[in-house]
C-alpha cells in the first residue's frame, strides 16, 4: 500500500495556496457573469473570464459564451501572476469539507472548464510568472495536487512533461516528493525524464521525503541512483543527512525516521553511495 506523509502534502499545498487561490477567489457571482455573457452585455469578456474562472463555482456554459465573445483563453491574472488555465486546474483540487476527500463532481466541473480553455487555444505550458513558484506550470500543479485526470488532460494537449520551474523542479519531482506512484507512471509513460530537474531531481526528493514506493518506481525506471544534485549530493547522501538530523532531534516523528531508513536501505540495495 502506498503511504503519503500528510505533513508533506500539507506543505505542498501551503506553498500552492501562496499563489492566492482560495481566499482570493473572485467575489463576482458566477451566475451574474453567465447571464451578462449570454446576453452579450459583457464589455470586457477577458476580464469577465478571469472573474468567472476564479469564482468558487465552475460554469462551463458561461466560459464558452465568453470565449465566443472574444475572451482570451491565455488571459493572465495579474493579481496572482497565473493563467486562467492554471486557476482552473488548481480549482479542481476541491475538497468535501476543509480536510475531506476530493469532491469529484466539483472537480470534474472545473476540469471541464480547463478542457474548454485548452480547446480554445489555452497554452498548457503557460507558467506562473512571478513569486515563490515562478515557472510553476499547470502540469506541475496537477501533479502536486494528486489530480490524475488533470494530468491526463494536460498531457493530451501536449503539456511539456519535462518543463522546469525556477527552482529546477519538474512535474515528476512533485509526484516523487509526495510518493505518488500513479502520477509518476502517467508522467514517465508520457516521456518524463526520471533523471530530470536542475537543483532537485525526482530520486533526491523521494529519498529526502521517505517516499519509498516512489523511489522504487524511479529506480526500476532507470533513475541514476548516484546522480548528484546542485549541492553535489547523491540521493543516499541527502537521505542520510536528514536521518542524522532527525535522530538528533528529540521531537522527530518516529514514522518519518522509519520511512527514511527504508529508503536508505533501498538505495543501498541498488548501489547507492553517499
Features:
274 residues; mainly alpha; 2 strands; Serine Threonine Protein Phosphatase 5, Tetratricopeptide repeat
Give the topology.
Elements: H1 6-17, H2 30-38, H3 45-54, H4 60-68, E1 76-77, E2 82-83, H5 84-91, H6 104-119, H7 138-144, H8 148-156, H9 171-177, H10 181-189, H11 202-208, H12 212-220, H13 235-247, H14 254-269
Helix pairs in contact: 2-3, 2-4, 3-4, 3-5, 4-6, 5-6, 7-8, 7-9, 8-10, 9-10, 9-11, 11-12, 11-13, 13-14
Structural commentary:
The structure is a single chain. The chain has helices at 6-17, 30-38, 45-54, 60-68, 84-91, 104-119, 138-144, 148-156, 171-177, 181-189, 202-208, 212-220, 235-247, 254-269; strands spanning 76-77, 82-83. It has a two-stranded antiparallel ribbon with strand order 1-2. Helix 2 (30-38) runs antiparallel to helix 3 (45-54) and helix 3 packs parallel to helix 5 (84-91). It has a single domain, classed as Ankyrin repeat-containing domain (Serine Threonine Protein Phosphatase 5, Tetratricopeptide repeat, Alpha Horseshoe). It starts with 5 loop residues before the first helix and ends in a 5-residue tail after the last helix. By secondary structure, the chain is mostly helical. The protein contains 14 helices and two strands.
